[in-house]
Amino acid sequence: MKVISVVGARPQFVKVALVVKELAERGIEAPIVHTGQHYDYEMSALFFKELEIPEPVVNLNVGSGTHAEQTSKMLLGLEKILLRERPHAIIVYGDTNSTLAGALSAAKLNITICHVEAGLRSYNRKMPEEINRIVSDHLSDVLFAPTRHALEILKREGLGDKAHMVGDVMYDVLLRYMDMSMSSTVVEKMGLEPKKYYLATVHRAENTDDPKRLSDIISALSALDLPVIFPAHPRTKKRMEEYGIKMDGSIRLVSPMSYLEFITLLRYAAKVLTDSGGVQKEAYVLGVPCITLRDETEWVETVEDGWNILVGASRDRIITAVAKFSPKGERKKHYGDGYAHKRIADVVEGL
What we know:
The protein is an alpha/beta fold. It has 16 helices and 13 strands. It has helices spanning 10-25, 45-50, 67-85, 97-108, 128-139, 148-156, 169-182, 186-189, 205-208, 211-222, 234-243, 259-267, 277-286, 300-304, 315-324, 340-349; strands spanning 3-7, 32-34, 58-59, 89-93, 112-116, 142-145, 163-165, 198-201, 228-231, 251-254, 271-274, 290-292, 308-310. Helix 14 links the parallel strand 12 and strand 13 (308-310). The N and C termini lie close together (10 Å).
């Protein structure tokens, strides 16, 4: 039995890590195809090395470009690979252009599609990720929901018969590597004190492709009372240069980090400011107050439980939230028990 995983972006490398290991341990051939959507060493190869992910059998090297350019290159490359390899099924992860291209390529060839992290919705169609996840869910034959909320959404959309509540694979990886992150010395090496700095990430198109939103976010980060460690996504840096946005004050711009380094910095941050879905979850699990630089979130339980606040890109709201937001609620076991990857493998093995 051969099951191909299609990945291309940083969060997908985390999601695929334990799934392919589990499949391989069960005797299932589990090659990885890398679209090359993220291609810098820090954004790609470093993750494969650190999380001990098998090397991709193919890298399409699509690189950057518009959504149409990226997706069309992926479709052309994936079709050739799927025709050659003839897998029993493919697994796509999350909500990127790689997810969409993988699902669409397999659907056209009548290959079984499994979608990990199915059922998430922001209900904001302006987000490319929202389009990707909706189309991928409706094309897929097997849907792996990370939370009860996601499962209910799939049921409401008439997809309940395909859906399995398995838990969140990123939570699995976080539990697996949490102890290793304790031994990391990145905080000391950067001359920081625990809980005496903020961590920030900005990469969503709604923020990076809007000059005013990005300018207001950077202005707010520059005005904060503690150092702001900002591992900038290459696209974010490029847009800042294009828009002439300058950083000053509290911001310390650093290169994208390895998984363990980032988790360590997050664990010891006073607060995190982000537009990343994965970071919202990780902050919740680690007990770090999260300020989300978006107007909505797919991970609604983090907000409902009082550990995450949505502030959009308003400079004043960001600064006020950093000063005043303090979590009140209990952190619950929304994301499973650390064995989502095993439940996924159970289902795939039975296809």
